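Recall that a protein's primary structure is simply its ordered list of amino acids. Everything else, from secondary elements to tertiary packing, is in principle encoded there. The following example makes that idea concrete.
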Amino acid sequence: MVALSLLSLYAMSTPWVSVALMGTLERQHPVLSLEQTKAPDAIVILGGGRNPDAPEFGGDTVSPPTLLRLRYGAYLQRHSQAPVLVSGGRVYGELASEADLMAQALAQDFNVPTRWREDRSRNTHENAKYSAELLLAEERKHIWLVTQAWHMPRSVVAYEAYGVEVTPAPTAFSRHSSAKSIWLRFLPRAKNLAKSSQAIHEWLGIAYYRVMAAVAVDAL
């Protein structure tokens, strides 16, 4: 058992395994084709965490994963001119919600306005629930949903459960290093272990959502 545990730890720490695990999630929704997709009623960008008490910014700001989502969301907004909804609350009771930080970053860094701020959610399920309330109240049903490619399958399930028509707009796909040496794909690194852990977390989350839907229980 010790040997098996060490082997599993090594395998999940290699880019060969971590990219493969991420691929099981990321291949479910391809890159958005702007030329072949109808314009949305709104663009929804999901929060992906915050960088707390960042000294260079004088307080909380968006995390690197959130910034990736905002960058792509801003790109889509310029293409479509659709209004933007940002979604993210106060997971640990912070003063500013993730939605507030996201709207600030969109305005200051990308010169993109925010139409709605969904600032009550603490997880993906609540992102969908509270965003749907804001959007459907204005009869805006079709959205482009922006989040990391590995997070998209669970996000789509959550939003569609609340009657929203979702066109996935995934970003930040996992890729192997551009290095030519194939041996580097078998070199263990901490960031690859984190990716493998994230992929497993997502699959467990998807399984949980499906079980809750099957027994008609409101997932948390």
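Strands lie at 42-46, 50-54, 59-62, 84-87, 116-118, 142-148, 165-171. Residues 32-172 form a domain with the Rossmann fold fold (CATH 3.40.50.620).
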